[in-house]
Specification:
Blueprint lengths: L8 H8 L6 E4 L6 H10 L4 E6 L2 H10 L9 E5 L5 H7 L5 E7 L4 H5 L37 H7 L2 H12 L4 H14 L5 H9 L15 H11 L2 H15 E11 L2 H15 L19 E3 L9 H6 L7 E7 L1
Helix pairs in contact: 7-8, 7-10, 11-12
Length: about 325
């Protein structure tokens, strides 16, 4: 049973503006909460393409949603969403009516001890979204990666560690943590989550250990993002999503990190902008026309009630655009 609670569920489904018969992509299947709601809206004539880099997410959805197993228009794809164009080409789908992407990590992944995502469970420092690549049929294929968090902490230079802790984790004690990692790995490789937690604990001031957010949160987040090249994937995915949308089709993205939100916001603005000629030009010469219109002028945030029921939603932001 999935323990994952979909974030901004009602808001994101409503924002997609979908109807029966539509073709929709859930680019980040996760626990399947968003996909189940999408299916309620688009079936029986619609089509859903649900993508996830984690093969476990695909398998769990198949088991928990067996009523859709004979549905020819539900495609479960084990791949990275950055490959959206090739995925849809393989399925012979040229245009879609809506695309949803929730960039947060699934609670199911955090609960799986052997994944190494959680600082509260002792495990190998893996953090790959897909640890067990396998091929099951023509609509389910894998894109396994070899980089792990363990390789990062034991092979990246001190300067590289500082960079990812600062950029991806916004960790204020990035320098002291990186320095301690390099020091300790000379004595013994940093192999487990608890090995890393102890290093972080010994690298930060006492007061930092007693704040609302656990002192290891930001480093673990940064390592997960680097391991899976998440920001690069988002930067590739959004332009492809815009291209594949049909007229009046909508793209909704849910971000959890300032880096993710910055990428989404900038690409949205770029595609919503018309003329890019210098202000002193008397008439437009570039001929550039807006490709999308921004539906959410400000990001939609979770309600106080949702944050109370699901604390992991606290940093979520929903942004939506519509293809012109």
């Amino acid at each position: 049973m999935s323990v994952h609670k979909p974030v901004l569920l009602e808001e994101s489904i409503e924002a997609l503006n979908i109807k029966s018969g539509d073709t929709v992509v859930d680019a980040t299947l996760g626990g399947g909460g968003h996909s189940r709601e999408i299916l309620k809206k688009i079936m029986p004539e619609g089509a859903l393409v649900a993508i996830d880099a984690d093969s476990n997410a695909i398998e769990k959805f198949k088991i928990q949603n067996s009523k859709f197993k004979n549905e020819r228009k539900v495609f479960l794809v084990n791949d990275n969403f950055s490959n959206l164009d090739s995925i849809l080409k393989e399925l012979e789908i040229k245009k879609v009516n809506a695309i949803l992407a929730d960039f947060g990590i699934s609670s199911d992944q955090l609960e799986e001890t052997d994944r190494g995502f959680s600082f509260q469970k002792n495990a190998r420092l893996d953090m790959r979204m897909n640890q067990l690549p396998r091929i099951t049929n023509q609509y389910e294929y894998t894109n396994g990666e070899n980089l792990t968090a363990e390789k990062i902490v034991n092979s990246y230079s001190e300067e590289e560690l500082i960079r990812i802790f600062q950029e991806y984790g916004e960790e204020k004690y990035a320098k002291s943590i990186a320095r301690e990692i390099v020091k300790q790995r000379k004595i013994k490789p940093v192999e487990t989550t608890f090995d890393l937690v102890l290093i972080i604990e010994n690298s930060v001031p006492e007061r930092y250990k007693h704040q609302k957010i656990h002192f290891a949160t930001k480093v673990f987040q940064a390592l997960r993002i680097e391991t899976n090249k998440e920001l690069e994937a988002i930067g590739k995915f959004i332009p492809k999503a815009i291209e594949i949308l049909d007229k009046k089709g909508r793209l909704a993205v849910i971000t959890f990190h300032s880096g993710e939100d910055k990428i989404a916001k900038e690409i949205f603005r770029k595609n919503a902008r018309g003329c890019i000629c210098p202000p002193n030009f008397p008439v437009c010469r570039c001929g550039k026309q807006p490709v999308v219109k921004i539906i959410t002028k400000k990001p939609v945030l979770p309600t106080t009630s949702e944050i109370k029921n699901n604390p992991r939603s606290r940093s979520a932001k929903l942004r939506v655009i519509e293809k012109i």
